[in-house]
Amino acid sequence: MIEIYQSGYLEGVERVNNVKHILDQFSIPDFSSFFGKKIKTFETVIISDLHLGSKVSRTTALLDFLERVSFKRLIINGDVFDSINMKRLNRHHWRVLSVLRRLTDKENHIEVVWVRGNHDGYSDLLTQLLGIQFYNEYEFVWNNKKVLIFHGDIFDKFTSKHPKISDFADWVYRCSLSIDPKKMRIGHWLKRNSKTFIRNVQKVQDGAIKYAKNKSADIVICGHTHHVQDEIVDGIRYLNPGSWTDTPSYFIGLSENVIANTPFS
After folding, report:
1. Strands of 219-221's sheet, edge to edge?
2. Per residue in 137-180, pLDDT tens?
């Protein structure tokens, strides 16, 4: 950990001196079509599945998001990293980590929360390296509603039972993204036509809804599937912001009384 910190990577390849200063320089996008009014600062934003270290991680779009969208709390719902092999991180990935570390500086008054994902490896990595609190699941009250957040991989039995098949399918999908990185037509076609993928999406949703009922939650938010969802099932609202390997990438924004799954780029 110390060697990584002292290497200078987190001080920034393409140094970021002050995140708040950067936020002030950029105009905040207008999300009024989703929230009914322009939001200057979100109460909470939730993103998932960054997969830093992967060639298809959309770090340019992610940095743009972190620099242009203002929020009081950022929740990363799992899979910050693609693997525990830190050598796979390039300078853009390290810059994302640098921005995340600086967001946690006390003068920014921003809370950053990390919820464990199945790709994240050592649970204390971001806690020690970036000062970000780690959770297996996270809950809070918003607009008099209980919000429950966890990654959702616990309900994906296929991945745990058939890791080699899952790894191969994941490799095929990533290859398709690298072939058509802008429109990702092949990747989207594979998702729409993969029965295993569709079943897993449904299983994660069903498991999350059942678990949310047991926890008396009103809203449950998962990641893991890379599939954007916003549905109401049995009176519980289920959301998934997809991933930052797909185009467009989404985030879940919470304003004073509206929660919405919102495309960024």
Report:
1. 138-142, 145-149, 219-221, 236-241, 228-233
2. 999 999 999 999 999 999 986 454 444 444 544 555 555 556 65
Rounded to whole angstroms, how far apart are CA atoms 218 and 148?
Answer: 8
Strands 44-47 and 250-254: antiparallel
Structure tokens at 257: 């009384």
Residue 79 and residue 118 in contact, taking contact as beta carbons nearer than 8 Å: yes
State which amino acid sits at residue 10: L
Beta strands in the chain (DSSP E): 44-47, 73-77, 111-115, 133-135, 138-142, 145-149, 219-221, 228-233, 236-241, 250-254, 259-263
CA distances for 49 relative to 29, 95, 122, angstroms: 22, 17, 16
Domain boundaries, the chain: 2-263
Superfamily designation of domain 2-263: Metallo-dependent phosphatases (3.60.21.10)
CA 233 to chain centre: 23
Asked if residues 74 and 47 have their Cβ atoms less than 8 Å apart, the reply is yes
Nearest to 257 by CA among 113, 148, 145, 109: 145
At a CB cut-off of 8 Å and minimum separation 6, what does 232 contact? 238
What pTM does this model have?
A: 0.79
